[in-house]
Amino acid sequence: MLQHSTRVALLPLLILAAAVLTALVVTSPLYLSVISFSFFFVGIFSVLGYFRPYSGLMIWLCCVPWLSLTKWTGAMVIEEFDLALWGYVLGLVLHLFRHGLPGPLMNLQWHRGIAVIMLLAFGWQLMALIKGYHLLPANEAVYFTNYEDQGGPLRIGKALFSALCFYFCCRYLSADWPRFQRALIVGFALGALAVMLGCLFERWHFTGLLNLTTDYRTTAWFWEMHTGGATLDAYLALSLPFIMLGLMNAKTQVDKVLFVLLLCLFGYVALTTFSRGVYLAAFIVAGLFVSLQYTRLKAAGRQLLPENKQRLFAMLAVAILAITGGLWLFPYGGYRVLLAISGLVLLVFTFVAVSDTFERSFAATGFAAAVIVAAALFWLAGVGKPVYGFYALCWLASAGLLYLRCLRGGSKLVDALLAFCFMALALLTTAICWYWSDYRLTSAQLPGLLLLPLVLAVTFLPFGHTEKMPTALSFALWAAVSGVVIVLAMFFNSSYVDSRFSTTDKDLQGRFEHWDKAIQAMPAKNDIWLGSGVGRFVPLNRERGDIDDQVAVLSLLPLQQGNALYLKSGSHIHGYGEVFRITQQIARPVGNIALQLNLRHNSDIKLLAEICDKQLLYHGKCSRGSLTVKGASDGVGQYSIQFADNPFSSAITDSLTSKTFSLAISNRDTEMVLESLQLADSLQANLLSNSNFSEQMRHWFFSSDRHHMPYHVKGLWPMQLFEMGLIGLLLWSGLTAVVLMQQWFSKTHYSQTGSTVALALLGVLLVGLFDSVIDGGRMAMLYFALLLLSASIRPHRLT
């Protein structure tokens, strides 16, 4: 039980948490008169916070990347993950009020100098929030109206408050350090898994998993990328060190395998973002993680490599052969042959790391038998699609025999069978390459094909008497080899990657020009020192920016009965990807589709209506309709747009995924007032919710796919300069530098978790060099939270 004084101290926190939650639940856009999802989120996480605080923290961290329904609800200020967090805080306060602390608070402690800088930086951030909120027009609702009202400062202010709530939880849960550390690692790892599954589904549904030549960037569950940005990139970068730490600390083989698979999945998702920021961040973060762990283990006197390095040299030889063969064969066999080579290399690495040398005569017999069987099968049936199934069966058989050999030792029969399976895998990899290239084997492929059986020559090397190596090292080297060969193959053979990187200089110059415009948009002379305030970039850029590059205007107009939507298109070039679209998620339409509109306009207007199979930015199948009207309307005009076709079938994927309806003005600098619209299919049902805007902008969202620079300052430090001035930028930069130095550069003190959290923070900062990473609530909250943790996790003396 808690002492009476501690109860009194916790009581105001309990009252505050309950009051904030009550106000937020009532105003949440998901609030219903009978059943409320808001109450559900608050209730379930309050229960977790009270009964299972560590599990609750882990589950909430897992939910952060996807528990935000803004794309469906239109709410951008208060999101579902906020309600979950504040419900968890309420439950945790009740838990502490009832049971007390699990132990002394020794693991999160502040150095006085860092605490002073932190208070100054957060205080300056608060002043910028208040300034932006005071100078912007009122936000009419919790739903999105535009980026020019008080919703912008509220989103970042809410993120700051959420980060403090999260840190409050960590502060007390860290008393049981092993459980807290595991909750943190597993929570971020599961969050990364949720993101990766979203990316996998998106790529499978829209491009195919192995199509890496299409101009398609995944967005997963991050609605913040609707105006460009790098929210997905930043989350991937911050999650990588937690995945690597989880692999390093895994206690069982099952845990190691799961983290290895997660790391491989991370590699695929990171590659398919086609983001130079992710590539840079992943390379630097992973390199620093390995360097820091090596330094720590060396300082602790750990022997990291065996004294006899024959096994290591054998694995390096396999790595060189695999990389060379993969690059040689990729133009003919694509990513399928790379995956086949990767599977073979993993087994060979494991064999070299933990097994004794083959019985050479029996291994040679197994190799020869595999060649004879493969030749006979080719002569009888040729090479067809079943080769993939044969490869999978052979790989599983090899893994089982290898496990049996490690468990019980080698035998003549096991050696012969394992050698047979190894050679069969090499030959099946050749067959996959042959099949995928439409049976066009040429002399140019022959050297690459000969390298695959050569990989198996290392199994005859006399390393059986040497010290065995940890399987974690073989897995790490395998992951590195697989990543290197896939990255090199992409850069040397993908036309899209080549074209994207060829524009780096041009994009960099565009960033510099964009930052110059941001500084020029600052209205007062002293703003360069004090900042212009959070959330004011869009209106100031409209007022002081280039008149030929203005973004669209979106606002609600009050009517005697309900509201109308005022929409003015931008003055910039209107290509298909640049038009400003108001959007809404709808159910799959059935049969013929028609759109009825009631609107007013004062000039010629061209409207584009679409229903697309769309995640957020890039679309799949679409049905389109258009309308062109000359002159101005006399009062409210009634118009109809007939969609050309309905490509959405009753297939499972079409039924499970929602469709995106969008409406846009496709000519430049044109305005209209939209009073209502109705989208009907053959069932004569209106597929749109809140179609007359009587509930403000509930259910409505927007997208500006390829013209997003005027919506935010692209870059963390330029954004801080604009919002908080040079003083704020220096405070935050100084704080970040001191925090990173504390965690990384002490020769006598080290915290494994602290350095990992600091690496996660570095990942966000690296992506933020040239992209907007904290103009949305989620990443802003994680950025503040990682900074708080990095600054206060106490490094321990190395022993």
UniProtKB/TrEMBL annotation:
This is O-antigen ligase domain-containing protein. The keyword Transmembrane helix applies. The chain crosses the membrane at residues 33-51, 58-78, 84-101, 113-136, 156-173, 185-206, 226-247, 254-271, 277-292, 312-331, 337-355, 362-381, 387-404, 416-437, 443-463, 475-492, 721-741, 753-770, 776-793. Coiled coil: none annotated. It comes from Rheinheimera maricola. Keywords: Membrane, Transmembrane, Transmembrane helix.
